Amino acid sequence: QGQISKQEIITLKSLEGSKELASEVFSESSLREMANGMGMANVRNITTKRVVLDRWPGAMLEFIGDQQRLDITLTMYNRMYIVIYKNYMVFLQFQVGTIPSENARDFKKRISANIPLFRYVANSLVLQSQY
Fold first, then answer.
1. Angstrom distance (rounded) from CA 114 to CA 102
2. What pTM did the predictor assign?
């Protein structure tokens, strides 16, 4: 709502300021709105969770949605890790898509097989400029 003062900018760039901003940006309703705004149809199975990534406040958002690609509708599993670092919002996005002839059980198996990889990659995030 208007101009941001220099003091507000300094506060936002601090860990405490990022935590304060995260409490609003990463509310369950805001994350659900984000999932529904990703351009997919039939968004469902939304899960949200607050996390910490390399000391900074973050969130995990996962959901399933349908996406039209050419003449094929693909079901996509999405997992995002989002972190507020100073005046930046960093997104790590992972997806697993259906293969057109794949059944639901095999799709769930592929999702389960990839979740540990997604966690390892997100956990390896190092925001080097803070050190």
1. 16
2. 0.84
